């Protein structure tokens, strides 16, 4: 009886000891893994700070003002008005000591390797155009990074063009206002592509990045994904897709469609124009999820059949002409082959008469940029 009892107890003790040893091993492995992750995190963070410091050193005194982090806190502490939030961080309404209103973008400490901050400071500080938002200053204090812009009272274009936003109290813009905004953005992009000392490709043209002042005058913002083209060439080499799903040009995600160049911005601009015309986002077509109907196809069909878009903002024959003009130009901008798209200088053809515009070929692709794997912003 005693022997049997001992035989039943010892295996039990052995199994308990084995489980205990396994737990200890797992705990040690987890600590080691956490330590490696923490080391990698701090190494990466240190590299980011070094990259930014090297950039600021290489470029010498930058023309815009450098603020301390205490300056940034003073700008936004008295108002405490958050204008927006995204993966990059938060944007707050603030004011300078003289009371001048500003928009302050406080960047997330864990966001990227500092490239977006560098792009924003380097590229937008090179610009000076009525249709480009003005960067007034920046803050870089260790891990604390912020950008100070002129304040745009009406916020972004997206609030005013989608039917769904009317329920939120945002009025829709009339046809003449939409036309003026489209031409203003075209002039801003033409300046970036040809008017700067160095050609700049934006890579993220969309309604969210078009800001409106108190008179609804448009200005291009957010240069975090922008690229500078060396010399007079606009063709650049890129690793991976860059931009926002739905607005990415075909050649950006597959070089089989052509070279990445200033024509990639033209494509994004075209999609934005079609959204302004259709009054909805390009991935929210009423055809439903059962059909991969490409948004430009939906617009093109109505152009072919001479159908109206059933928008309440169309109140006269003049409005119809404006919408048709913008539709034709938007579809030219969205041609699959980059060589068939107009330059932004040519896009300012929006100001010409409707009779001079020919209907373009139908874009033959459905949008591959719907894939979540291609989301870069």
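^ structure tokens above, recovered residues below v
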């Amino acid at each position: 009886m005693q022997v049997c009892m001992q035989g039943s107890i010892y295996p039990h003790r052995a199994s308990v000891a084995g489980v205990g040893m396994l737990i200890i091993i797992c705990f040690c492995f987890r600590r080691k893994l956490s330590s490696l992750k923490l080391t990698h995190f701090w190494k990466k963070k240190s590299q980011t700070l070094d990259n930014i410091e090297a950039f600021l050193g290489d470029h010498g005194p930058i023309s815009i003002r450098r603020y301390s982090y205490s300056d940034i806190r003073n700008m936004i502490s008295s108002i405490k008005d958050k204008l927006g939030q995204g993966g990059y961080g938060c944007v707050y309404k603030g004011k300078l000591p003289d009371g001048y209103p500003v928009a302050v973008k406080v960047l997330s400490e864990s966001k990227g390797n500092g490239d977006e901050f560098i792009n924003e400071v380097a590229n937008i500080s090179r610009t000076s155009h009525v249709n480009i938002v003005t960067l007034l200053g920046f803050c870089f204090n260790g891990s604390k990074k912020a950008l100070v812009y002129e304040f745009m009272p009406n916020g972004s274009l997206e609030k005013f063009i989608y039917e769904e936003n009317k329920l939120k109290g945002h009025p829709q813009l009339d046809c003449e206002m939409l036309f003026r905004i489209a031409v203003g953005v075209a002039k801003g992009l033409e300046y970036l592509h040809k008017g700067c000392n160095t050609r700049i490709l934006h890579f993220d043209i969309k309604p969210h990045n078009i800001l409106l002042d108190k008179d609804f005058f448009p200005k291009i913002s957010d240069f975090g994904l922008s690229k500078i083209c060396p010399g007079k060439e606009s063709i650049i080499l890129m690793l991976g897709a860059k931009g926002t799903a739905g607005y990415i040009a075909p050649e950006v995600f597959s070089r089989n469609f052509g070279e990445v160049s200033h024509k990639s911005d033209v494509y994004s601009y075209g999609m934005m124009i079609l959204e302004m015309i259709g009054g909805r986002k390009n991935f929210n077509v009423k055809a439903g999820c059962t059909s991969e109907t490409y948004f430009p196809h939906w617009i093109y069909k109505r152009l072919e059949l001479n159908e109206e878009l059933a928008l309440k903002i169309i109140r006269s024959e003049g409005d119809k002409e404006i919408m048709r003009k913008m539709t034709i130009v938007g579809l030219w901008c969205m041609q699959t082959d980059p060589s068939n798209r107009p330059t932004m200088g040519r896009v300012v053809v929006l100001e010409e008469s409707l009779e001079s515009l020919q209907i373009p070929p139908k874009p033959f692709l459905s949008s591959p940029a719907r894939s979540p794997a291609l989301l870069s912003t």
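The chain is about 40% helix and 15% strand.
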